[in-house]
Amino acid sequence: MLTNLEHLGLAVKDLESATALYTTLLGQEPYKREHVASEAVDTVFFQVGGSKIELLAGTSPDSAITKYLDKKPEGIHHVAFEVDDIRVEMVRLRAAGFTILNDEPKRGADNKLVCFIHPKSANGVLVELCQSI
Fold it and tell me: Where is the VOC domain (predicted)?
């Protein structure tokens, strides 16, 4: 079961200027910066009430974020939901007709196991499922 809006992922070209902008907008410093080598992405997290804002910047031309920004403007990249058991949710959602982009959950940023639902099966929205490790 999806238990919480975990975060909104925002694709940005310049992580430092986006971090400065969101620091001013939200009136607080980010609580975490992290490099996710497997995804070739640098991330910055802000806590906003019970949810988070994740800024994502690609670190190589092969990064999914870099490729995304080659085609689309900066902005909302994905919506992430917290789940209690990611594998159970993957089975449930596949059975309900959703296209899951991962065969198995993978380690993501912020100490989470993650998987993604293809936007074509979620009305054009890339959905991430997150389970705390």
Answer: 4-132
Query: What are the strands of the beta sheet with 32-36, ordered from one edge?
Result: 32-36, 41-48, 51-58, 2-11, 75-83, 127-132, 112-117, 106-108
**Tokens of residue 69, six digits:** 């920004």
**Residue 122's CATH number:** 3.10.180.10
Report if pTM > 0.90: yes
Tell me which residue range forms the domain holding 75: 2-132
Q: How far apart are CA 113 and CA 108, in angstroms?
A: 6
Predicted confidence (pLDDT) per residue in 13-41, tens digit: 999 999 999 999 999 999 999 999 988 99
**Into how many domains does the chain fold?**
1
Q: Output the CA angle 1-37-90, nearest 5 degrees.
A: 20
| Closest to 41 in 3D by CA, of 15, 17, 18 | 15
Strands (E), 16-90: 32-36, 41-48, 51-58, 75-83
